[in-house]
Amino acid sequence: MKKVAVIMGSDSDWPVMKAATETLTEFLVPFEAHIMSAHRTPKAAAEFSESAAENGFGVIIAAAGMAAHLAGVLAAGTTLPVIGVPIKSTFEGLDSLLATAMMPSGIPVATVAVNGARNAALLAIEILAVGDEALAGQLVEMKKKMAAGVSKKDEWLQAQL
Ligand code: RP5
């Protein structure tokens, strides 16, 4: 199976991004997690994305806050799908959200919600599952469990009325 790269701009992003690595672990999807920055280590970021496909990665998740250019910079150097996670920062994450999502035509970044680390991992898994029936089956099971959880909550609500 191809690996998922979980890249974040700083160690201060880790408390949020832990949810992404935990989700990948839950689904037994191989991953690497690294800290690199579009602004502080631009060469390392460019080299990583340019060699990501040949290094066995299938999807890149990139998380950054503030002027969050990391996902875009990584997307510029690869044809692998890049998922951006805007990290909540100075302006409640609106700065990160816009910097991550508003990419120029030709360089897409699939942007999840502010601090949406679990969804980023699930989207990465969904991308890999297109060519992997067993992985797709795991996602179906997860959705069934989620639906059962909602039904239980509705039963609880009915009991309050
Ligand atoms: C971004 O700047 C990082 O992704 C982080 O969210 C934010 C602040 O970084 P630190 O100053 O905490 O290293 O590049």
SSE map:
Blueprint: E1 3-8, H1 14-26, E2 31-35, H2 42-51, E3 57-65, H3 70-76, E4 82-87, H4 94-101, E5 110-111, H5 117-129, H6 133-160
Parallel strand pairs: 1-2, 1-3, 3-4, 4-5
Helix pairs in contact: 1-5, 2-3, 5-6
The chain binds 5-O-phosphono-beta-D-ribofuranose (RP5).
Question: What does this protein look like?
Answer:
The protein has helices spanning 14-26, 42-51, 70-76, 94-101, 117-129, 133-160; strands at 3-8, 31-35, 57-65, 82-87, 110-111. By secondary structure, the chain is α/β, with parallel strands linked by helices. Helix 5 (117-129) packs across helix 6 (133-160).
Q: Could you name the key traits of this structure?
A:
161 residues, 6 helices, binds 5-O-phosphono-beta-D-ribofuranose, globular, five-stranded parallel beta sheet, single chain, alpha/beta
Based on CA atoms alone, the radius of gyration comes out at 17 Å
Q: How far is the N terminus from the C terminus? A: 49 Å
Unreliable stretches: none
* Main sheet properties: 5 strands, parallel
Number of strands: 5
Order of helices and strands: EHEHEHEHEHH
- Helical segment count: 6
Give the names of the bound compounds: 5-O-phosphono-beta-D-ribofuranose
